[in-house]
Each structure stands twice: as structure tokens, then as C-alpha cells.
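Try it yourself: sequence plus S-adenosylmethionine, in.
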Amino acid sequence: MLCISAKEFLFWKKKQLSKGGDYESFAVLLDCVGGIRTNDLNFIGLNPEGKLYLKKNLEFLESVWNDHLIKSCPIQYLCGTTFWRDLKLKVTNKVLIPRPETELIVDIVFNIFRKKSEKLFFAELGTGSGAISIALALAYPLSDGVATDIDQDALEIAIKNYINSSQQSNLKFYCGNWWSPLESYKGKLDLAISNPPYIPKDTYEKLPKEVKNFEPKVALLGGEDGLKHIREIINKAPLFLKKKGWLILENHFDQSEKVKQILIKNKFTSIETVKDLSGIGRFTIGRYK
Ligand SMILES: C[S@@+](CC[C@H](N)C(=O)[O-])C[C@H]1O[C@@H](n2cnc3c(N)ncnc32)[C@H](O)[C@@H]1O
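Structure, out:
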């Protein structure tokens, strides 16, 4: 650990932020690489005469920050880490950086299944870094979960994240196209969740470069209209869900009505759009009969 004065640190911090970038990314850098917790950052300004301890020196932190600004590479990939709900997750460019708005998907599950002692059997399709499945496996310790992804490299990150976050063994990982690795679980799921790739092709082409140049295309692109994967997931869900089992999907900001219609066509009931914190109909949920 390197000891520096708070005054020197505050001067350096001001200089870095004046170059550009956002405060949240800077806080991720300081926490993941520098070892300064975001909560502690606020206190440093209150005591400029004090001292603080860093895991890496200011020159090193500055070089990572410059890299982020020059290449527009997400800071989470440069640091190899992100924070999501109360998890600290490893991320590489093989997985989507889990978004803050997706955190709500876990709260939707909490609202449906209120007892944490429930013995659920859940599946997450397209787990990426494993964020959603790991949060659920930890929250419902008596449950069993299965998490799938088409990309073996992504699954390896998810497995590492599960091992790092949990002492449990209630989550299994499978590689394959949507439902296909889950053939042996037909009719057994209480709940299936997915945040699939849902960006329409023309929108994908215009994504900001920090997303398009760095995050995996397979995690973002949802075909011509963005609904290719959502259709496939919904069409086959009735084979895998128990009677009255729930399907919870994240969708693009303007897709909830279309997703609702696909669910109706597939005989789902209790269909509802759930808004995110910005009031966008971000999630569509339903039960199979
Ligand atoms: C939007 S990302 C979501 C990742 C993670 N669940 C999250 O919320 O941060 C979509 C994930 O679906 C996976 N995926 C894409 N196509 C797939 C397919 N055909 N079958 C299974 N998984 C797929 C991608 O590799 C990616 O990890």
C-alpha cells in the first residue's frame, strides 16, 4: 500500500476529471484498481490534511484513466471488474458489462417469490457475466438454478464470478443456443429469466463507440427488428415452464407492446410491463397459463 496526502490526491483527482469522462467511471477505477471505496471518496474531501492508502500509484491510475479517455474503452474492461447490486464481478470483453437498469430484474423476482426460503427451480438464458443468476442463487439459497450462454468464454467468466461470490453449489452452467442445453428440464421450471440481445440492426450500427467497439456483438444484436431472440425464447418457453411458471424478459425501450403480443400469442397470462427507474417499459413478464 502507498501512503499519500489527501491534498495531493484531491489535486490529482481534479486534474483527471478535468480531462473528461464521468465520475462513475472514475469511481470504478479508484475502487477496483486504487483500492479506495466509493463511499470513502466523499470523506477524503472533508479531511484534506489527512492521509490515504492506495493499492497502485497515481501514475499507474492516470495511465489507465488516459487509456479509457483516448480509446473510449469502458473503464470496467480496463479494470477487469464491475459492481452490480452487491456483487463485485469480473468482466472481460467476452461479456456485456451488466447494466444498472438490469438490477431491477432481481427485484421483480423478489416481488413474485417473496419467501427467500422457497425452493425454486429457475433458468437464466444468456447469462453473460452471470450477474442475474448469481444474485438469485445467493438470494434463494434453497433454490436451484441453471444458467446458459451460447458463448463458452462468457460462461467461463460467469463460473469464476459464481465461485468468487458464493460458497454454494446451487447454480449450474450450460453452453448452447437458448433452451437447447435444457432439454432434460422440460416442464420443470418455476421461473425463466432473460436479458437477451434486443438491439435492432439499424440501431446497433449507430451505437456509441464505447459500446459498439468493445462489447460483444452477440450480446447486443437482436436481428433486423431486435426481437429475433425474444421470439425464440418465448415460443419455446411453454415447453420448459411448469404450469403457472413465470417468464421475465428485459427488452428495448420501445418493445414492450410487441413483446406483450408475442406472449399473448403463446398463451401466456398475467402479462405485465414493468418500468425501470426512468419510467421506461424495460421488462415484460407473464405466466404460462
Ligand atoms: C444482453 S447480454 C445479457 C448478459 C447478462 N445476462 C446481463 O444481463 O448482463 C445477452 C447474452 O446472451 C448471450 N446469447 C446471445 N445469443 C445467444 C443464444 N442464441 N443462445 C444463448 N445465449 C445467447 C450472449 O452471449 C450474452 O451473454
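One thing you can check immediately is this: The CA atoms of residues 31 and 40 lie 10 Å apart.
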